[in-house]
Amino acid sequence: MLHKPTPTEGGSDEENHDSSNEEGGGPDWPNVAVRDREMLNVDKFRGWLEGRLSGELEKRTNQPFADFVQHVACWVEASMSAGGTDATADCIQPQRALLACNLDVQPTGSDESTRLDAILIAQPDTTTAGRLDCANYRDALALVAVKPTRDQLYKAYEQMLCYSRQVYAIQHNRSFAWGFTLCERGLRVILFTNDHAVASDDMDLGTSKGRRAFIRVLVGLSCFDEQRLGYDETVVWHAGTGPQNPGYWTIECVEQRDAADGEAQQTVTYYARDPDIIAVRLFGRHTRGFLASCDPDKVDEPDTFIKDVWSDTSESARNDPDSDPRDEVAMVREVSRMLAEDPRDNDPPFIVFKHGGLHVVESTAAVLGPILEHIEEQGCLVIQPRRPRRGRRKAKTEKMALDPFPFRIHKRIAMSPIGQPLATLESPYELIIVLADAMRAHACLLECGILHRDISVNNILVVRDPSGQVRGLLTDLDCAIKVGVERDLRPERTGTPPFMSISNLENSSVPRSELDDWESVLYIACWLGVYGVSEVDHINCQKEIEDDKNWVYCALDRWDAGSFKDIANAKHAHLASPVEFDEKIIMWFMNGDGYKALEELVIG
């Protein structure tokens, strides 16, 4: 058994001496071969500390680091084997052994060619040690960046900012992530949350105190439950056995019941392949979208869209999540209820609620627990990405206290029907029908007292019936707000720049209204009129852009370039007069009767 570490553990400066129990001894080894291997690992690690190893600087560090991690894993494994017969309230039973693999090798599962210095993965035991040379990003518990000197720390931070984005993009049940930087002998732990990357103080592996601190970290990661490691335990990957039997995800959604029912909330299990919408950014809401079915035999015939998101919310919801005035779940439920009671509409132009809500009472603070309390009390080294004028993304750091830590609530909602993106449309005539349906849904929202505020090509979907007829769906209430709610609840700009209203781009003090959303519809019609509605038309447009040197005069490109102010100024100029609008935008519409009809709709 491993005792819970206390804040005073780790020794004082006077205790920085070699300890045979720390490095040279060991538990009751299962056999002589394991004992000899671990004694060799200890000797190689000491050789690294004493500078006796040869080879490239980074590579001579990777292997000793992996050996040290494996040696600690053997101790952890011995504790796991003990079975907890002497368990007390002050003891924690390890759940896993951590091993380092992929030493300077590109992991599989990513479209990037980046080579990682090392990956830490969780294993049930150490029997796989020595055979872990091709781990997948899907298996990574933590990523490691190694540099030969301490003055390359910021370079290591830059790499971690790049590497860890892949963890979120590939591990679709990851809430937050861990990383390590090792520069010469100085090791730091990095915690990646939705809003920050925070680094620990330096642990000098050249001292007994530093090694002891690192061991405590490894043991802690071996003992944490899955949630504290950053995994969502209600989204589980089930590996397949081959192309004929691919893996799938199981996803639990809360089955919401009215309070009058007096019944406890139940969960519904959905089955899905990898999500169509993945978390592509290191920071933010980490929105994911699964196409799923309640029937495991119909995992490839989904009928439900599941949206999983870590929403930022108002301070008023910190102690009472149900009071959040921007609760997307509550808004979708209200719209679904209203549409169900409306006898005029049997085919609503809006995705309706099935299951979901506050998946559990789960927030950033609830998941991170004591880790977050320590960060808020002691302050931390915050790693912030910044984009220089030239060159790749760089990192800067600042010692600061994060109090209060940005507050987010984990929400999941299951909705139907399933729609397809606008690129599946076959003609501008179909686009006109879909836009009309979407804005009919917009009117329904207004009747419910909800303003959408994010009309874009990504939030309007297409449903095609067996006869080939299309209808439109308006989705995504992430940016929606109750009509009449004070602006200070969500003062930031919302939306996708090419489709944002001028007032929104300028962050005007004028209250947002439905006119801003209608302005966004105008921009969608112009955007698709120029760049093509169907996928075929879009491909042809791209070829024309590549071949036509005069395309530089098409002003529409300025709607997606530069700052918010630049885009607002461009739209001001293009909408200043009918002549300007025709010369800068309309004349660039694609040819064809359908596009002529779209052009007439835009001009009015």
UniProtKB/TrEMBL annotation:
One of its GO terms (molecular function) is protein kinase activity. Coiled coil: none annotated. Residues 1-33 are annotated as: Disordered. Pfam families: Pkinase_fungal. InterPro entries: Kinase-like_dom_sf (IPR011009), Pkinase_fungal (IPR040976), Tyr_kinase_AS (IPR008266). Residues 136-528 form the Fungal-type protein kinase domain. This is Fungal-type protein kinase domain-containing protein. It comes from Coemansia biformis.
